[in-house]
Amino acid sequence: MKKLYIILFILITLSTFSGTFRVKAENMFGSDKYYVLKGNAEIKKDNITINTNEATISLVDDDWRNLESLNTKIKTDTFEASSNKIKFDMKTEKGVLNGKVITIIKVDDSSLSIYCDSMNIDNKNKKYSGISDTLIEIYKDDYIIKTKKFEYNETSKKLILTGDVNIKNDVKKMSMKSQKAIFNTDTNEVTGENVSITLKIKDEEKNNTQDTK
User: Where is the Organic solvent tolerance-like N-terminal domain (predicted)?
Assistant: First the structure.
């Protein structure tokens, strides 16, 4: 009976030196070194919520820290993401998402939607970075951005783009190509290196012809 009580308690709450997080699942098994959660598993710590069907939480230096899971959703107060696989440190709140990563980051009244193959997250410092084998796709308002790598800092609101950068806005009738660019998500200002820009203007002659008909 005593052993059963201990297992049920760990199912509810686990502690790290930096705080406490709670877990729940339909089934659980494990030992002194790890616990495996199965069936609608949910892990919560402060503003972080992780949902998955199966997760493993293991000890690192006698501290419950390392979380690994497949087909996972993670959500905080400023972003949410899903991926095929995640490794996350519950103490440092840093992690890596791999495989079909889809992320939405809040930007005031707007948001950044990011599609990539792999992404690093640092929740405490609100920093993110990602890469893709082909091209990352990023959407913000009317802007469509493609690049090989990105870094984003919620505090500075600077989106740093590296490798085959293409920024397009059909509403503004502009497109820009470069190897490196910085996009300010607060003002939509763009700076770049070795830039090629295409700006479209209306065909006035065509418009005048249509007006006379």
Answer: 32-124
